[in-house]
């Protein structure tokens, strides 16, 4: 009598595993063919996508994507990235059978046989709409709080402006009345002088406001800071009474810094006057200039690099911790009424933000105050050595979807002596990288149709670990970080960039 064949242990385990996957209801877990056609469909997929297996098996998975994503080629890109990098992860809107949208977390893994041949893809999708909406609500609450705080600060600012300008207008209006009533030359001359000073004070106040708002245009050029300070030394000394002493301490061989000399002199004079007012009848003011190398975020949010540091130290009363936290607020002042507007340090802070530098305060009650300004150093370059950047014999791949921008970048890199390859999209860039293994630098725009520069950088770094990557963008990095959290993993350069900016970034690599 012939016995019937019993299923093997492996077959039993495989069937149990299949039933387990098919029974999962919190996750959509299904298989795709190499072309993206749905092969299997579990209970979770049916629950929150709405399709019965008979309705979906045999159809292309791109039907779950929005019309916008299909037009951008996102489904094809997802499979391509999964195939070439070993995994694809993403979040975005997907469409149910009834046409409604849900926010999905997606993972796609390629399935290959022992010989490395692609058999298909395993796809896992989660409906995380509630979490996404909660995060959006939290962000809206944060934005509302920020707007409330901004309006409070604006109220303080406008109140201070109104107070100062009302005083100035009172001087001018009273002076005009005196001019109408008086015929004495001496009285007329005094009134004109008084009104002229009030008008000049109003102009100065406006400049300070613009500097704080970062709207006062800076004419930044590479300057020898030591030379600028020495030419301004007489004015600084005149700002101090005879009983106070100014000491200049300037390190030799300082690199140049990108400054607007007029705004720089105004900021320095502000700091020296503040130091004078912080002291009693006698005291010492030290202006110390040197060059420092900083680690990333060692001072405020400054990137790592070389900086020219200017420190203004006084031997005055110092500041309390509470005063320190409010020192750069507009119209905050500890001086007597009529002795200051509270805009001096705000103006300096605004200037430092404009020139990509930083302001740092150090103070202790009874021990004086030190204000440190950090200006990005400019390493000396001339026409003879611009073409000899470190690694100028290297190959570089430039990626930008704008033809004019790409052409300009090609010219700049060629001028620097690089061997240049180019691509106008990320997929073409990946193909170029695979076909030319000698490329050592990838220089890409961030915002491009389809795959972004950040996504390109992530894929390129996985495939080519030694590749140096620089991303260029006209957007503020903080704003980009909200949309693309991984952007902080790459070297950044801001658009529009000049040749000197390019040289600095390439040397840093």
From TrEMBL:
The keyword Glycoprotein does not apply. This is histidine kinase. Residues 88-140 form the PAC domain. It comes from Duganella rivi. It catalyses: ATP + protein L-histidine = ADP + protein N-phospho-L-histidine. SMART domains: HATPase_c, HisKA, PAC, PAS, REC. Residues 395-509 form the Response regulatory domain. Pfam families: HATPase_c, HisKA, PAS_9, Response_reg. Keywords: Phosphoprotein. The modification 4-aspartylphosphate is found at residue 445. It is an enzyme of class 2 (transferase). GO terms for molecular function: phosphorelay sensor kinase activity. Residues 13-84 form the PAS domain. InterPro entries: CheY-like_superfamily, HATPase_C_sf, HATPase_dom, His_kinase_dom, HisK_dim/P_dom, HisK_dim/P_sf, PAC, PAS. Residues 160-379 form the Histidine kinase domain. Its EC number is 2.7.13.3.
